[in-house]
Structures are given as C-alpha cells and as structure tokens.
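hey team, just a heads up i'm posting the complex here instead of the shared drive bc the drive is being weird again. everything in one block, sequence lines first with there labels, then the predicted structure for the whole assembly after. its two chains so it's a bit long, scroll down
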Amino acid sequence: MTYDIQAVGESQDAAEPTDVTAAVAQKQIEGKSPWVLALRRLRRDRAAMICLGVIILIVACAVGAPIFAEITGHGNMQQFPNIGRDAAGQPVGPNGTFWLGTDTLGRDLLVRIAYGARISLFVGVVATAVTVVGGTIIGLAAGYFGGAVDSILARFMDWLLAVPFLLFAISLFSVAVVHPIFGIIGPGLPIVIIVLGFFGWASVGRLVRGQVLSIKEKEYIEAARALGAGPWRIMLVDILPNLLAPLIVYSTLLIPATIVGEATLSFLGVGVQPPTADWGQMISDASTIFLYGPWWYLLFPSIALLITTLAFNIFGDGVRDAFDPRGDLYV
Amino acid sequence: MARFLIRRVLQGVLVLILMSFTVFAIFFLGPGPQFVARALAGKSAPPAVIQQVSKQLYLDKPWYQAYWHYIDGIFHGSLGTDYYNHVPVTTTIREALPITLSLVVGASVIWLIIGLATGILSAVRTRSLMDRFFTTQALLFYSMPTFVLGLLFIWILYYTLTTHNVPIFPAPGTYTAFSSDPLSWAHDMILPWFTIALVSAATYTRLTRGSMLDVFGEDYIRTARSKGMSERRVILRHNLRSSLTPVVTQFGLDVGVLVGGAVITETVFSLPGLGYTAVRAIYSQDLPVIMGIVLVASTAVVVANMVVDIFYAVLDPRVRIH
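-- predicted structure starts here --
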C-alpha cells in the first residue's frame, strides 16, 4: 500500500515542512482495511457520488415535506375546490400558486409529491431491512446446518422466488378488506411490508446460503470449532462478518427494487390507501384522466419515482464496483 | 436422467400442494370463521346466499374437511363459483387466459431478443459508444417501473401520435384474438409487449454482457483465438454457449416475474387478461375469482419452472447431479 505517499507528501507540503520522510515512513506501514479502500473507491466514482447527492436531496424533501407545505401554504391533504380546479372541475396545471399543478381533488401536487417521498423511502428502507435480516438468518442456517434443513429451506426459497407475488398481494388485500387477516393484518402499509418482505427475503437467503457453503469449509472455521465454539457463535462471529460486503451491496440494490414494488402495489390499489400521499397511487389516479389534459398529474409523480429509483440503482452499482472490483460476488 | 426427472416432478407436486394450501389459508382461514362465508359470497350477498355458500364450501365443518372438499373440487375441474356474476370461476378464467398468454409469450420473445442482442453487442465492443448507449438504456429501463413505461407509451406513442394524425398504434384496451386475425393481434399487442419486454430485457442486457466478459477471460477462448479461429466463431460457438447458462437460469426464475409484469401491463392497457380481471375483482369483492386466478397462475409458474429446469438438465448434464 505505497501509492499514497504522494498524497501524504502533498498534505505535508501545505503544512510546515518538518520531518517529511519520517511521516511518510510511518504512513507507509499503516495498512488500509478493505473497508477504507472500498470507501475511497466509492468516493472517486463521480456518477455514484452525484446520485448519492440526489438521494440525500430526496431524503431532505421527505423529511422537510412540511416545509413545502409551509412555503406554499397548502397542506398535503388540503383541498382547494375553487382555485385548485378549473370551471369544469378538472385539475389546474402548473402556475404561480400551484407550482406543479393540482390533482383531481384540487390538492397541491408539489406538496403531495414531497409527502409521497416519505412513504417510498420508508417502505424502501424498512422492507429492505426486513428482507435482508430475514434472508441472512435463514440463509445462514440453511448453509451452515446443511442436510434436511438446507433441502427444505432451499426448496422453500425456490418456491418463493417463483411465486407471482403481485397476485398474492391482491389476494391478501382482497381478504383483508373484508376483515383483517388472522385478525391483525389490515389493508395498507402492513400488507405492503409483509408482501415485500415475505416474497423478498428468498433472494437474500439464496445469496447468503451460497456464500456460507464456501466459507464454512475454510480452516479458521474448523479452528473455531476445535476451540469449542457453538454453531451460533461460528455463524454470527466467524461467518457473518465475511458476508457484510455482499450484504451491503445487495441492500443498496434492493432498495430501488423495493421502492418500485411499493409503488406497483399502490398503483394496483392494494398498497397504501388514500388519502395518504403516495407516488404509485398518484400515478394510478392520474392514469385515468391524463389523456383529457392534466399531463402534469402523471408526469411529475412519475419523474419523482424514476429519479429516485435511478439514483439508487446508479449509486448501488457504484457501491458494488467499490466493494467488489473483481466482480466475484455476482450480486 | 430418469431419477432427475422423477425428483424434479415430485418437487413440483410438493410445491403445488404448498401453493394450494397457502391460497386456501388466505381465503378460507384468513378472515376468521364468522367472516369467511360473507367474504366469499361477495359484497352484496343476502344472508340466505351466505348461508348457502357456507354449506356448499363446507365452511361449517372443520378446516381440513373444507380443504379436502376444495382440493376435490379442483380435481373435478371446478374452481368454485363466482357468486357475484353467477358463473363458474373456470368460465371467467377461460375467457381471460388467452389474453394473458398472448401477452406473456410475445413479450418474452421480444425481451429475450433485445436482452441477448444488446448484451452480446455490448460485450463484444466493450467501452465503445454502442456499449455505453446499451448499458445506459439498460440502467434506465431497469429503474423504470412497468406501469410508468406503459403510461408513457400510451401518452406518447398512442395519444400524441394519434392526435397528430399519425394513428400507428391502437387505443389501449383493443384486443383481437389470434385465431381471428394474427396480424391485428400482433398490432394490438405491440405496445403491451414492448412495455414488459423493455423493462425485463434490461436485466438480460446486464447479465449477458457481464457473463460474456467473464468468459472472454477464460483460457479456452485464448486457445481458440490462437488457433486462428474467426472472431465470429469464437463469440458464437465458444463464448455465447457457456455465457447463456446464467441467462437460462434467470429466465426460469423470471417466469413468475413475467406473470407479475402481465398483471401491471394488463391493468395499464385495460386488457381483460387474468391480472386485470383479478384487479377488477377487488372492487366487486369477487374473492372466488381472485382465488381461482392465483391458483391457475401459480400452477402455471410452477410447471413452467419445472419445464425450464428439465430443459436445462438436457442441455447441461452437470445440473442433473445436484
């Protein structure tokens, strides 16, 4: 790790030129962990950094959604039947009062898009977390224990990966509308997170299982076992740290997929329920009327959704290239 | 091979049993005993009908008897009754199935062609302008939700062109049966097909490109080149063949995704296929229809996966061992 001498020398030049060689020599033997190297590679990736900026901006919009309401003076649920709709009762286009126009109920689209970012990001992060944690635990168990446990879990994962989950989401929703399923699962966010989490963990489980299968044959695992470590200790202390890099990469790429999943469920009407502001639902609402004029109602939520998924995907690609420059992980 | 076949088919049957029980659990056990009959009878069913439904579906008996009755019905070709429209669910499904099939078959052909072609071209000319274009468009479509693309198509290719007197694409919701006129069938389907295909092809572009670049690093490619083999032959014979393995695996997994894509696309384009029918059934609370569609679609997915696996085993003998 000597390629850093240049940088160290430069920073020393700027400061007082004392004993440069000693500082360089000291720096030279300081090893850099793979994490530091990966983060450095990521920082150099311009596209990924721009997208990180976009993501931070979207998060800021979500967190600061009330600020949009404050500035415009329009609440996110507030309807403006007179100024928010034209004489025919149709939404009005972008103007000085409503910067991005209004929706069918005369609500400010800009404010609602900002509030919609909250749902997208919340579900994107929470459902991804559920998926990754669940998939990791089950994948670890399947890969480590092997045998019958593995066969059953692997088959189950294969099945989950093949299930048309949208149809199952429709089923769950249609039942939950009549009465909460098993008395607890009602329509709305719970179904969204359950559906995305339950049908999503299998891909993580499969990835983890594959990695565990190869890691558990390594000598240091044998050494741990010889020292008397139990299976859970080996899984969590000796194997899990090796999985962190692929899991980080996979999670970053899973977030945009989950955001699309949530928007899709809401678009089909089985996700987040009105009047909560949600991008998928806005697009669904707009899809029935945009050909009669209100193109902005379709365009702006679609752009918000597309920019979000695109930013996460490009950033995720950057994270993958940074953590896995040789492309060994296949995630 | 025979052992592999038997094992794979048994696995498939096991999965189907699991699937049927999951569907049963959601619809028959999910709402809780006092609500099941009302849920299945539909929104506006009078008490007498609810009573009758309860009796007909063995809802007053223990759950395993109801499950058995339900499975028994399936084996006799009955998926229950659509109490809302007073027709057997099988009739509804039989009307919707050809539309979904048309969508799925056409879209998957287009998507494989686009995905493989752009992936191969990108890999062969890495870092060229073309490669950059294909990878960027793949990233764009990969991030694009299916319904957004479908609506954009309707807006730009149908609506804008038609209002500017260039009516190339038919209005959404138009469908001609293949048997009556194959040409109009394809013409009506072209936008829905490309909606699914472009979104899904993006994964294949990335997959094929990555996989081919990996294989180009292999020793046997160098050997083939040093023997003076033409580049075309190296690419098609030596590289593509082994690069296709992960693509076939992915395609096997994606059959379920394809059905999902069909649900969205049918909804966007108002095509009365299985997905659209299921979505519509939510509004009328027509649960038996949804239940039937889920069962039929999942069965199709399981069977399709099985066929892909077996096909795969025929192509690559190594698979049979595992």
